[in-house]
Design a protein that fits this description.
alpha+beta
Length: 221
Protein backbone atom coordinates (compact mmCIF):
# COMPACT_ATOMS: atom_id res chain seq x y z
CA UNK A 1 0.00 0.00 0.00
CA UNK A 2 1.35 3.40 -0.96
CA UNK A 3 0.32 6.71 0.56
CA UNK A 4 0.82 10.43 0.05
CA UNK A 5 2.89 12.12 2.76
CA UNK A 6 1.78 15.69 3.56
CA UNK A 7 4.21 18.59 3.08
CA UNK A 8 4.84 20.37 6.41
CA UNK A 9 7.66 22.76 5.48
CA UNK A 10 9.32 24.27 2.40
CA UNK A 11 12.50 26.34 2.60
CA UNK A 12 13.50 28.06 -0.63
CA UNK A 13 17.24 28.56 -1.35
CA UNK A 14 18.92 30.22 -4.34
CA UNK A 15 19.65 26.82 -5.91
CA UNK A 16 16.35 25.11 -5.10
CA UNK A 17 13.93 24.23 -2.31
CA UNK A 18 14.24 21.96 0.71
CA UNK A 19 10.96 20.12 1.24
CA UNK A 20 9.96 18.34 4.44
CA UNK A 21 7.06 15.90 4.64
CA UNK A 22 5.72 14.19 7.74
CA UNK A 23 2.91 11.82 8.58
CA UNK A 24 1.82 8.40 9.79
CA UNK A 25 1.84 5.56 7.27
CA UNK A 26 0.84 1.87 7.40
CA UNK A 27 3.65 -0.68 7.72
CA UNK A 28 3.23 -3.34 5.02
CA UNK A 29 5.66 -6.27 4.83
CA UNK A 30 8.15 -4.38 6.98
CA UNK A 31 8.27 -1.23 4.91
CA UNK A 32 6.67 2.13 4.23
CA UNK A 33 5.87 3.43 0.76
CA UNK A 34 5.30 7.03 -0.28
CA UNK A 35 3.96 8.09 -3.68
CA UNK A 36 3.48 11.33 -5.63
CA UNK A 37 6.97 12.65 -4.92
CA UNK A 38 8.41 15.16 -7.44
CA UNK A 39 10.00 13.63 -10.51
CA UNK A 40 13.00 16.03 -10.35
CA UNK A 41 13.87 15.66 -6.68
CA UNK A 42 17.57 15.14 -5.94
CA UNK A 43 17.68 11.53 -4.74
CA UNK A 44 21.10 12.06 -3.14
CA UNK A 45 19.52 14.52 -0.70
CA UNK A 46 16.82 12.16 0.55
CA UNK A 47 16.77 11.95 4.35
CA UNK A 48 14.28 9.95 6.37
CA UNK A 49 13.55 9.30 10.02
CA UNK A 50 11.03 6.87 11.48
CA UNK A 51 9.93 7.33 15.07
CA UNK A 52 11.24 4.47 17.22
CA UNK A 53 12.36 2.25 14.32
CA UNK A 54 15.66 1.85 12.46
CA UNK A 55 15.73 2.27 8.69
CA UNK A 56 17.34 -0.63 6.82
CA UNK A 57 17.09 0.79 3.29
CA UNK A 58 15.84 3.90 1.50
CA UNK A 59 15.07 3.52 -2.20
CA UNK A 60 13.61 6.02 -4.70
CA UNK A 61 12.18 4.84 -8.01
CA UNK A 62 9.99 6.07 -10.85
CA UNK A 63 6.27 5.39 -10.85
CA UNK A 64 5.25 2.98 -13.59
CA UNK A 65 2.78 3.99 -16.27
CA UNK A 66 -0.91 3.28 -15.58
CA UNK A 67 -0.51 3.25 -11.81
CA UNK A 68 -2.91 5.33 -9.78
CA UNK A 69 -1.33 8.71 -9.02
CA UNK A 70 -4.40 10.70 -8.12
CA UNK A 71 -8.16 10.86 -7.98
CA UNK A 72 -10.00 9.52 -11.00
CA UNK A 73 -11.86 12.20 -12.95
CA UNK A 74 -15.31 11.57 -14.46
CA UNK A 75 -13.92 11.23 -18.00
CA UNK A 76 -11.31 8.67 -16.90
CA UNK A 77 -14.00 6.78 -15.01
CA UNK A 78 -16.21 6.66 -18.13
CA UNK A 79 -13.27 5.40 -20.22
CA UNK A 80 -12.42 2.68 -17.69
CA UNK A 81 -16.08 1.61 -17.41
CA UNK A 82 -16.40 1.38 -21.21
CA UNK A 83 -13.30 -0.80 -21.45
CA UNK A 84 -14.53 -3.10 -18.69
CA UNK A 85 -17.97 -3.38 -20.29
CA UNK A 86 -16.45 -4.23 -23.67
CA UNK A 87 -14.27 -6.92 -22.06
CA UNK A 88 -17.35 -8.42 -20.38
CA UNK A 89 -19.27 -8.49 -23.67
CA UNK A 90 -16.31 -10.13 -25.44
CA UNK A 91 -16.17 -12.81 -22.75
CA UNK A 92 -19.93 -13.47 -22.95
CA UNK A 93 -19.82 -13.56 -26.74
CA UNK A 94 -16.95 -16.06 -26.77
CA UNK A 95 -18.68 -18.32 -24.23
CA UNK A 96 -21.96 -18.23 -26.18
CA UNK A 97 -20.28 -19.11 -29.48
CA UNK A 98 -18.38 -21.97 -27.82
CA UNK A 99 -21.62 -23.36 -26.33
CA UNK A 100 -23.30 -23.16 -29.73
CA UNK A 101 -20.51 -25.18 -31.32
CA UNK A 102 -20.80 -27.85 -28.63
CA UNK A 103 -24.59 -28.16 -28.98
CA UNK A 104 -24.33 -28.27 -32.78
CA UNK A 105 -21.91 -31.19 -32.52
CA UNK A 106 -24.38 -33.11 -30.32
CA UNK A 107 -27.22 -33.03 -32.85
CA UNK A 108 -28.07 -36.54 -34.10
CA UNK A 109 -27.40 -37.32 -37.76
CA UNK A 110 -26.09 -39.81 -40.26
CA UNK A 111 -22.54 -40.09 -41.55
CA UNK A 112 -22.64 -40.65 -45.32
CA UNK A 113 -19.16 -42.21 -45.27
CA UNK A 114 -20.19 -44.99 -42.90
CA UNK A 115 -21.69 -48.24 -44.28
CA UNK A 116 -25.45 -48.28 -44.49
CA UNK A 117 -27.03 -49.65 -41.35
CA UNK A 118 -30.55 -50.66 -40.50
CA UNK A 119 -32.80 -47.81 -39.38
CA UNK A 120 -33.27 -47.55 -35.63
CA UNK A 121 -36.50 -48.73 -34.06
CA UNK A 122 -39.37 -46.17 -34.05
CA UNK A 123 -39.01 -45.31 -30.36
CA UNK A 124 -35.31 -44.52 -30.73
CA UNK A 125 -35.93 -42.61 -33.93
CA UNK A 126 -38.64 -40.54 -32.22
CA UNK A 127 -36.21 -39.76 -29.39
CA UNK A 128 -33.62 -38.63 -31.93
CA UNK A 129 -36.15 -36.31 -33.56
CA UNK A 130 -37.13 -34.84 -30.20
CA UNK A 131 -33.48 -34.28 -29.28
CA UNK A 132 -32.81 -32.71 -32.66
CA UNK A 133 -35.74 -30.31 -32.24
CA UNK A 134 -34.67 -29.39 -28.71
CA UNK A 135 -31.08 -28.80 -29.76
CA UNK A 136 -32.23 -26.88 -32.81
CA UNK A 137 -34.37 -24.57 -30.69
CA UNK A 138 -31.48 -24.01 -28.28
CA UNK A 139 -29.03 -23.32 -31.11
CA UNK A 140 -31.48 -20.82 -32.66
CA UNK A 141 -31.76 -19.05 -29.30
CA UNK A 142 -27.97 -18.93 -29.04
CA UNK A 143 -27.74 -17.53 -32.57
CA UNK A 144 -30.07 -14.71 -31.54
CA UNK A 145 -27.96 -14.07 -28.43
CA UNK A 146 -24.83 -13.92 -30.58
CA UNK A 147 -26.53 -11.46 -32.93
CA UNK A 148 -27.53 -9.19 -30.04
CA UNK A 149 -24.09 -9.39 -28.42
CA UNK A 150 -22.35 -8.54 -31.71
CA UNK A 151 -24.52 -5.47 -32.10
CA UNK A 152 -23.88 -4.45 -28.50
CA UNK A 153 -20.15 -4.97 -28.98
CA UNK A 154 -20.18 -2.83 -32.12
CA UNK A 155 -21.89 0.02 -30.25
CA UNK A 156 -19.52 -0.28 -27.28
CA UNK A 157 -16.45 -0.32 -29.52
CA UNK A 158 -17.64 2.87 -31.21
CA UNK A 159 -18.32 4.58 -27.87
CA UNK A 160 -14.92 3.49 -26.58
CA UNK A 161 -13.23 4.86 -29.71
CA UNK A 162 -14.89 8.25 -29.16
CA UNK A 163 -13.83 8.31 -25.49
CA UNK A 164 -10.25 7.38 -26.36
CA UNK A 165 -10.04 10.09 -29.03
CA UNK A 166 -11.41 12.59 -26.53
CA UNK A 167 -8.82 11.49 -23.97
CA UNK A 168 -6.00 11.96 -26.47
CA UNK A 169 -7.04 15.52 -27.30
CA UNK A 170 -8.02 16.53 -23.78
CA UNK A 171 -5.52 18.11 -21.42
CA UNK A 172 -6.87 19.34 -18.11
CA UNK A 173 -5.48 19.70 -14.61
CA UNK A 174 -7.26 16.65 -13.21
CA UNK A 175 -5.86 14.38 -15.92
CA UNK A 176 -2.37 15.84 -15.53
CA UNK A 177 -2.38 15.24 -11.77
CA UNK A 178 -3.39 11.63 -12.36
CA UNK A 179 -0.90 10.73 -15.09
CA UNK A 180 2.05 13.08 -14.54
CA UNK A 181 5.43 11.38 -13.98
CA UNK A 182 6.25 11.06 -10.28
CA UNK A 183 8.58 9.23 -7.94
CA UNK A 184 7.88 6.60 -5.34
CA UNK A 185 9.88 6.05 -2.15
CA UNK A 186 10.26 2.70 -0.40
CA UNK A 187 11.51 2.72 3.20
CA UNK A 188 12.58 -0.72 4.46
CA UNK A 189 12.38 -0.88 8.24
CA UNK A 190 14.39 -2.79 10.79
CA UNK A 191 12.71 -5.29 13.10
CA UNK A 192 9.37 -3.95 14.26
CA UNK A 193 5.87 -5.11 15.14
CA UNK A 194 4.27 -1.77 14.47
CA UNK A 195 1.33 -1.62 12.07
CA UNK A 196 1.79 2.13 11.59
CA UNK A 197 4.83 4.37 11.83
CA UNK A 198 5.51 8.10 11.73
CA UNK A 199 7.84 9.07 8.91
CA UNK A 200 9.65 12.37 8.45
CA UNK A 201 11.12 12.83 4.99
CA UNK A 202 13.16 15.64 3.47
CA UNK A 203 14.70 16.22 0.04
CA UNK A 204 15.88 19.02 -2.23
CA UNK A 205 14.20 20.00 -5.49
CA UNK A 206 16.76 21.80 -7.67
CA UNK A 207 15.65 24.86 -9.59
CA UNK A 208 12.52 25.42 -7.52
CA UNK A 209 11.75 29.05 -6.73
CA UNK A 210 9.13 31.19 -5.06
CA UNK A 211 8.00 34.74 -5.42
CA UNK A 212 5.51 36.57 -3.19
CA UNK A 213 2.16 37.42 -4.73
CA UNK A 214 1.85 40.96 -6.01
CA UNK A 215 -0.79 42.82 -4.03
CA UNK A 216 -3.51 44.31 -6.13
CA UNK A 217 -3.85 48.10 -6.17
CA UNK A 218 -7.37 49.41 -5.65
CA UNK A 219 -8.68 51.39 -8.57
CA UNK A 220 -9.79 54.89 -7.74
CA UNK A 221 -13.06 56.10 -9.05
Amino acid sequence: MTAVLPVVRVVVHPDGALVTRKGTLPVVDGRLEVRQLPLLLDASTLRARVEGVDIAELRSELDLLDEDRGEEGPDDAALRAAREELEAVDAELGATQALREVLSSLAPGFDEDEPRRALPDPARFTAWLAADRALGDRVEALDETVRVLRGRRRDLAERLRVLELDAVHRSDEVRWRRWRPTRRLAVALGETRKKKAELELSYRVPGASWSPPTPSTPTRR
